[in-house]
Amino acid sequence: MEMVNYIVVTGGVISGLGKGITTASIGKILQFYGFDITAVKIDPYINYDAGTLRPTEHGEVWVTEDGGEIDQDLGHYERFLDKNIPKDHNITTGQVYYAVIQKERQGKYLGKTVQPIPHVTDEIKSRIKKVAKEGVDFVLVEIGGTVGDYENILFLEAVRQMKLEGENVLFVHVTYVPSIPTLGEQKTKPTQHSVKLLREIGIQPDFIIARSEQPIDDVRKEKIALFCNVHEEDVIADPDIDNIYAVPLLFEEQNLSKKILKKLGIEGKKKGKRYREWKDFIDGVRSLKEEVRIGIVGKYFDIGSFKLFDSYISVIEAVKHASWKNGFKPEIEWIDSKDFERNEDNLRILDKLDGVIVPGGFGLSGIEGKILAIKYCRENNIPFLGLCLGMQLAVVEFARNVCGLEGANSTEINENTPHPVITYLPEQVKIIRESRYGATMRLGAYPACLKKGTLVHRLYGKDIVYERHRHRYEVNPDYVEILERHGMVFSGKSPDGRLMEFLEIPGHRFFVATQAHPEFKSRPMKPSPPFDGLIKAAKRLL
Ligand code: GLN
């Protein structure tokens, strides 16, 4: 194929429709036909990237292999497409304006008046086209926010221009069709209004994907088709289902990929073995009966009167992938570490679990509760996996309670601790500043050399692994000797041996922690080794 095809996904009516999953699913069905797919997420906020966003603001911060701190939708793309997506596949208003203003300061506009149209839209188009350079067949472009928002208007204008300029562009609009209980029917009016807004901007959708609780019926499809100027067959039902990874199958049942290919004039392509694999995988997951109960001890849970699980989405997905692969249905328990600080008797709830995860985090709240949970898992032989902050606190707990280093802590939590077992390594800051991202965090994939004969080495089956990082603090090398002398094994270290990447406690059923975030590399059919190990240990299969 000579020309790349763009599929632009916009959203209407409400946010939170799962546009990222819809976008990833469209990519997936095209992958079934053997096409090479990539995806771009546009975030209309002014932040340069998601690195400074609080998790309760915008869910999890996704970390790419090349060290980008990105919107979590890129995580869906990677998991569905089974492909690493680099950081320049996340475009924000902040990046676009920053580039335009820099060019203006450098005199690159040759004295012209620099304006939103065409200068900002040109910058947007060039960034979208840049990702297409890799020889892919399809680029999915997901535009964040909702049509009618003030802040995404220039992005919509840019993709409108792309089509006019002769690029192969299809527009997919994801909307919501609510069921009003007092009326007892599904209402299409919000969809009609949303498409009207889109058409005012000059974009006519090719497909409308209707999110709803129950599948929309033919009467609703007909109505949407008529009022939104699309063919009835191009209105695709997207009801709530049991498993996000089944959305591609839902689209495939409605022949969405064939309809897309037909509109683009692409003929003679057949579904390949990737479709069968995906279908068998979903069928397998749906037939699972036995549960595995995993507790996630975290914070960030409450926002107003609602609980938000988005901040741990990759951890949740990694638990699912590992559970499914081992033949279990995951049952995730949300545990607020502050409950343990209030009353240590609450720790007993951990007895009911098959395994416990202490995930990453920043800041002070809930720290002592997490340390109590780790101690309880260690002393009661409950399978435990610590991720990033979870590893740091496992070191703090061990230092205090096994090595007898009273008051041991991370300097992030107590700067004046007598035993800074976790600390900020000035040499790291220097290395990061000079060679990587100009920031103070260790970001992206870094190598770890695994020690032969350890559990971690056995789980990965490799001598060197690359996992993604996002943190400032490290295990203090000055304390490694005393920790090891008391029985903690550092089973993975940076190639120079200075940074502790993995730890374990031999003799425990499963006590493993890592400074990295292995959850970012877990894929539906390829679980992350530490998660796989946790599930196996949880069910005594290790
Ligand atoms: N707050 C810790 C650090 O900066 C851990 C970060 C994390 O868990 N991602 O090192």
What does this structure look like?
- It is a single chain.
- This protein is an alpha/beta fold and 542 residues long.
- The chain folds into two domains: 5-187 and 202-284, Rossmann fold (3-Layer(aba) Sandwich), CATH 3.40.50.300; 288-538, Class I glutamine amidotransferase (GATase) domain (Rossmann fold).
- Helix 1 crosses helix 9.
- The radius of gyration is 25 Å and the shape is globular.
- The two termini are 48 Å apart.
- Bound molecules: glutamine.
Features:
542 residues, Rossmann fold, 9-stranded mixed beta sheet, 37% helix, binds glutamine
CATH superfamily of the largest domain: P-loop containing nucleotide triphosphate hydrolases
Spans of at least 5 consecutive residues with low confidence:
none
Query: Strand order of the main beta sheet, please?
Result: 15-12-16-17-25-24-23-20-21
Distinct small-molecule ligands in the complex: glutamine
Outline:
globular
- Span between N and C termini? 48 Å
CATH topology of the largest domain: Rossmann fold
- CATH C-level of the largest domain: Alpha Beta
Number of strands: 25
- The second-level CATH architecture of the largest domain is 3-Layer(aba) Sandwich
**Helical proportion, percent range:** 25-40%
| Overall pLDDT metric | 91
Sheet with most strands: 9 strands, mixed
